[in-house]
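Example record

The entry below shows one chain as it appears in the dataset: sequence first, then structure tokens.
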Amino acid sequence: MTDDELRTAVMKVDLLLKRRQALWETPRNLALILTAIAAIAGLIGFKLANQPQQIVVQLQQPLAVKVQ
């Protein structure tokens, strides 16, 4: 093989590799973004659910007692 043929063969293999990598690049990036969003949403939900509950006390009039 001459140098030109070898360079051409290496370029073809390189292009094939780059095409295969590019095929999975977008779905992988979308999966990473969705995973990050789900993790953040889960953390926010966890923090909101763990806040102390507020106890509300309603003061009402005492019951009338009948004396016989």
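Notes for this example: The CA atoms of residues 24 and 30 lie 10 Å apart. The mean pLDDT is 87.
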